[in-house]
Amino acid sequence: MHPVTENEKKSSSNQSTKLDTVKERHVAGVILARGGSNGIPLQNIKLLAGVPLIGWVIRAAIDSDVFDSLWVSTDHDEIERVAKKWGAKVHRRSAEVSKDTTSSLETIQEFCRMNPEVDIICNIQATSPCLHPHHLIQAVEMVTKQGYDSVFSVDRRHHFRWQEVTKGGGPDTKALNLNPAKRPRRQDWPGELCENKSFYIATKKLIDEGVLQGGKMAYFEMPAEYSIDIDNDIDWPVAEQKVLRFGYFGKDKPELVRLLLCNVLGCLTDGQISLSANGDERVSVNSRDLDGITMLQRKGTEVGINRGPAKLIYKLSQKTGCVVMSLNEPKQVEVEKLMKEKKLEWKEVAYIGNDATDVDCLSLAGLSAVPLDTSAMALIAAKYRCQSTAGHGAVREFCEHILHSLQPAGNPQCQTCQYDQHLVKSITQTHWPYDNIYCFLSQLLRQTGLSTFSEVNAALFF
């Protein structure tokens, strides 16, 4: 081994300095969320599978741990409130870059002027709820470690394209990416790479020059199941079903839910109490909610019911096999005693509540939910907001959410996924045009009054 010379020491020191400089570059994630969307009003905070749309990408970006700062750029007070609740900083954009005609680049340029410490910007699209942390980690490292100036996301599509014929432009069209005489089978054609609009990463230097894609460029290919873009109402039910199957549910996503705790009043019932002529109190329980409880029990989850008339709780316990819980205030203390007896951790507990007394348990549980018509305090604490109201399917919806959350993406053994495949298969066998299938599914949801495809499946196939 030869001795290290002074020149080699200097060279090594220079290389170390260069590496440190690269590591010190400030990487910022920026989510553009203007209030005046032309497609869906306030779509950026509309609930998708119980989570605000921007919540899905904020959660993935934070858990990727590759950003020195994460921002939501908006001009709207409510979007600002939701963004901060989910853990993002807020760039309050000016009126000049909040117009219908404003480009994404113009908004990002303003962000850069207001945040001069930023060196690399990752523009994350709020309308890409199936984004996962590992996508962002790998893509950002292509800039920070591999030396690319810009990286953007793509997916692979198998669409045969034809030249458009405008009025007066002639009667003929021609194929743009195939030979009609030798049409390839899908499995014999690799397809084409198309931007899927999940994210665009660029150095500040490029952005100052007026481009998001330039310099040494690279694409980051995402599997098709993680690619979705929401532009209008027809996309929404499709996106909801896809995010339940392929979305990112967080670092603390439980591997197993061993106990579900559920309030009877305000969750299983709608809070209405009717009186008979004899003065007897009566409440109603939705059979769909009871079916949801049964689905969980079949997977080995114990279900405990609490807070309701003694006679009702007793009859529900007899009918469903649920365990009767007497959770006095403070509920957190009572639940933790129960967990200690059963040797459970909070991540193994799911909780659906509806009142201020449930807030601590909703915050601590591995999975938690509230019905649509719940108190504001409980709503803020819950990890999932049902699209159904109390006594009208909220518990069933949460049970389905639990099952989806515990299943690997697209698991063929998932009962709900099987129903979804059955529904889509039955529709596609009609040989309708692809776009009309989506129209049909969207119309089906509206006409039935159901909020998710899973509910449609249950109505059709149970």
Automatic annotation (TrEMBL):
Classification via InterPro entries: CMP-NeuNAc_synthase, Cytidylyl_trans, HAD-like_sf, HAD_sf, Nucleotide-diphossugar_trans
Example GO molecular function: N-acylneuraminate cytidylyltransferase activity
Keyword vocabulary terms for this entry: Nucleotidyltransferase, Transferase
Pfam family, one: CTP_transf_3
Protein name according to UniProt: N-acylneuraminate cytidylyltransferase
Catalysis performed (reactions): an N-acylneuraminate + CTP = a CMP-N-acyl-beta-neuraminate + diphosphate
Top EC class for this record: transferase
EC number: 2.7.7.43
Pathway: Amino-sugar metabolism; N-acetylneuraminate metabolism
Assigned protein family: Belongs to the CMP-NeuNAc synthase family.
Native source organism of the sequence: Electrophorus electricus
